[in-house]
Design brief:
Blueprint: H1 3-19, H2 23-27, E1 45-46, H3 49-68, H4 70-82, H5 85-103, H6 116-130, E2 141-143, E3 148-150, E4 156-158, H7 172-183, H8 194-199
Antiparallel strand pairs: 1-2, 2-3, 3-4
Helix pairs in contact: 1-5, 3-6, 4-5
The structure holds zinc ion (ZN).
Zinc ion is lined by residues 135-136, 139, 150, 152-153, 155.
Length: 201
């Protein structure tokens, strides 16, 4: 095998195991039936138990990717041993890196884009809006790009940037999917929309 074909095989393996664990988030969540109750991306989402549940679903699918990444890892090892070594090495490096980067969470690294605390915070804001200490008479908290604020009085209730929530992205499947690969679901400070939307307040 020439160096050139080895590089091609390595890149192919690397690419496959780069995409593979991210597929659940990219595919499952973009389907139509998954998003009927939410306004289209990138509109703000009104807070509701459905939204809290969505954050928990995204969190579950995120960790599913972690489990999924062990498949190319094992295939990679098998391929190094019995098959095409550069291909297997590509698979193995990429999924190994994915697993390591996700495991950083447990040693004080960055938190996942969707967490249990995030869901709890949403619930707290929602409860607060229904209580006597609400911001105005008819509060309607919604999650904008950079914070949760009340649609009626404009008060910022919680400063948490909105991660990707599985809605079909306005920039289409491919550009949106590519952006999702780059951001891994974390909130992006969007120059076009996020700033305009939030600077109005
Ligand atoms: Zn209000």
């Amino acid at each position: 095998m020439s160096l050139f074909t080895s590089v091609i095989y390595f890149s192919l393996g690397f690419f496959i195991s780069f995409i593979f664990p991210r597929l659940p988030i990219m595919l499952i969540t973009r389907t139509k039936g998954f998003n009927t109750t939410f306004p289209a991306h990138p509109e703000p989402i009104p807070l509701s138990p459905k939204l809290t549940q969505r954050v928990l679903h995204m969190r579950m699918i995120y960790w599913m990717g972690f489990v999924a990444s062990t498949i190319p890892l094992l295939f990679g090892l098998a391929s190094i041993k019995w098959g095409n070594a550069p291909f297997g090495f590509g698979l193995w490096i990429s999924s190994g890196w994915f697993i390591l980067s996700r495991m950083q969470t447990f040693v004080g690294g960055p938190k996942p884009p969707w967490t249990l605390e995030m869901a709890q915070k949403l619930q707290l804001v929602l409860d607060e809006a229904k209580s006597e200490s609400a911001c105005c008479i008819k509060p309607s908290p919604e999650w904008k790009m950079l914070s949760i604020s009340c649609n009626k009085c404009g008060k910022v209730l919680e400063k948490i940037p909105r991660p990707d929530l599985g809605r079909k992205r306005k920039d289409g499947f491919f550009a949106g999917g590519f952006r999702l690969l780059l951001t891994d679901g974390y909130p992006v400070i969007d120059n076009n929309l996020g700033d305009i939307e939030d600077s109005e307040e």
